[in-house]
Write a structure and sequence with these properties.
The protein has 478 residues and is α/β, with parallel strands linked by helices. Helix content is 31%, strand content 25%. The chain is built from 13 helices and 22 strands. Helix 1 packs parallel to helix 8, helix 3 runs antiparallel to helix 4 and helix 3 runs parallel beside helix 6. One of its GO terms (molecular function) is dihydrolipoyl dehydrogenase (NADH) activity.
Length: 478
């Protein structure tokens, strides 16, 4: 006889653990299966998935540490603060990051206990379906089979690797290896100028690495509004990040000295990059290959994603749902969380809704980059008439006071209705400022609505208001 649950969540990452907690709040008997320990010192299973263990949280911890190092090394004098020689204890920096991760994973385990969620330690795969529900095998220290009326697949994604290139996470690394360097490489190569490549490249540049980023796409940050992308490329080049677009990667060799990357540049000329370490950051692929989906009649598409109903995250198997990185849409932790909540509430008979156009994106470089809604390029392609308002941080007293005046805010609004269609930010605290824009868009606000709201002075948020005013040529401080 197997244990019967109302809801079984497969995967303990942002989508999974949030889905489990919300389902438990709604009164269901819930279990969550997780198999990864993420190099836990005691070999214990760790909740939080890639995001918490080897992604979002540890990378932000390292970004914060490296930013402090750069501030003291290069910007303290601007404030009249004299310092002596500055050195980096990279092991302590990595240790701080690990401590934060451990604290966060322990916090999720506490939430599981608080909400009476059963943690199933082991790899989950489907066995079949009975009259009681779906049977799922849990391969851990002991093997067991559990049955669930509803199953939520939230197994996340893994780093995509280059064909024929061995990622040992010592010389050639993906995101996991790049978060635990035991020393600062003199020369660091990064393949891929996406979010992960830019953030990790920034971490190690700040603390002394000479960083070269190779990007296959002809344009930089193609997913961004191109006004933002051009500003970002200019500022990153000024900082010392060498970014080459339109390259074609060739042979990659490793030896005792490091890594050699042969590539062809955008002009077709053969080039060679020699570096101590290489980060491969060319995207991610969904973790769907070991779920035995065929046992319940499910198939993945050509890219490995599980097809779902766009509004409910339901798969073709009744009572089985999929959220986060294993389904269509951006691979963002907060998108996975919202989908996890949505599914739990749908199972409870509620009618939740997600507007995917209102999901914000963030790149935690310095300056930060964030956006929500559509870009100018997307609006032009769709034939939508719009008006744009832009305001620089250089004209904001708070930005000048904290010494972070690079960048700007751009607000795009419908030319006829004034409804906000997109907001794009490059500048200090963009990750926090974008939340106002997301709220405004969720409530179908007009640019005039933001323009009429009193913002605190002096604050960075005033730049958002000024950009909204600028859509009607009414910026007050420029």
């Amino acid at each position: 006889m197997t244990t019967l649950f109302d809801v079984l969540v497969i995967g303990g990452g942002p989508g999974g653990y949030i889905a489990a907690i919300r389902a438990a709040q709604l009164g269901f008997k819930v279990a969550c299966a997780e198999s990864k320990s993420y190099d836990d010192p005691k070999g214990e299973i760790r909740l939080g998935g890639t995001c918490l263990n080897v992604g979002c949280i540890p990378s932000k911890a390292l970004l914060a540490s490296s930013e402090e190092f750069e501030k003291i090394s290069h910007h303290a004098a601007d404030h009249g603060i004299k310092v002596g020689s500055v050195s980096l204890d990279s092991k302590k920096m990595i240790g701080r990051k690990d401590d934060i991760v451990t604290k966060m994973t322990g916090g999720i385990q506490y939430l599981f206990r608080k909400n009476k969620i059963t943690l199933l330690k082991g790899h989950a795969s489907f066995v079949g379906k009975t009259a009681e529900g779906y049977q799922v095998k849990i391969d851990g220290k002991d093997q067991e089979i559990v049955t669930a009326t509803n199953v939520i697949i939230a197994t996340g994604s893994k780093a995509r690797h280059l064909p024929g290139v061995v990622v040992d996470n010592v010389l050639v690394c993906d995101n996991e290896g790049a978060l635990k360097f035991d020393s600062v490489p003199k020369k660091l190569g990064v393949i891929g100028a996406g979010v992960i490549g830019l953030e990790l490249g920034s971490v190690w540049r700040r603390v002394g690495s000479e960083v070269t980023i190779l990007e296959a796409m002809p344009s930089f940050l193609g997913a961004c509004d191109q006004g933002i992308a051009k500003e970002a490329q200019k500022l990153f080049a000024k900082q010392g990040l060498a970014i080459h677009t339109g390259v074609k990667i060739g042979e990659i060799k490793t030896d005792k000295k490091g890594v050699v990357v042969h590539y062809t540049d955008s002009a077709g000329a053969a080039q060679k990059l020699e570096c101590e370490r290489l980060i491969v950051s060319i995207g991610r692929v969904p973790n769907t290959d070991q779920l035995a989906l065929d046992a319940i009649g499910l198939k993945v598409d050509e890219r490995g994603f599980i097809p779902i109903d766009d509004h409910t995250c339901a798969t073709a198997a009744p009572g089985v749902y999929a959220v986060g990185d294993v389904v269509r849409g951006p691979m963002l932790a907060h998108k996975a969380e919202d989908e996890g909540v949505l599914v739990a509430e749908i199972i409870a008979g509620q009618k939740p809704h997600i507007d995917y156009n209102c999901i914000p994106w963030v790149i935690y470089t310095d300056p930060e980059i964030a956006w929500v809604g559509r870009s100018e390029e997307q609006l032009k392609a769709a034939g939508i008439e719009y008006k744009a308002g832009q305001f620089p941080f250089a004209a904001n007293g708070r930005a000048l006071g904290i010494g972070k005046s690079d960048g700007f805010v751009k607000v795009l609004a419908d030319a006829k209705t004034d409804e906000i269609l997109g907001v794009h930010i490059i500048g200090p605290n963009a990750s926090d400022l974008i939340a106002e824009a997301a709220v405004a868009m969720e409530f179908k606000a007009a640019a005039e609505d933001i323009a009429r709201i009193c913002h605190p002075h002096p604050s960075l948020s005033e730049v958002v208001r000024e950009a909204a005013l600028a859509t009607d040529s009414r910026a007050l401080n420029m």
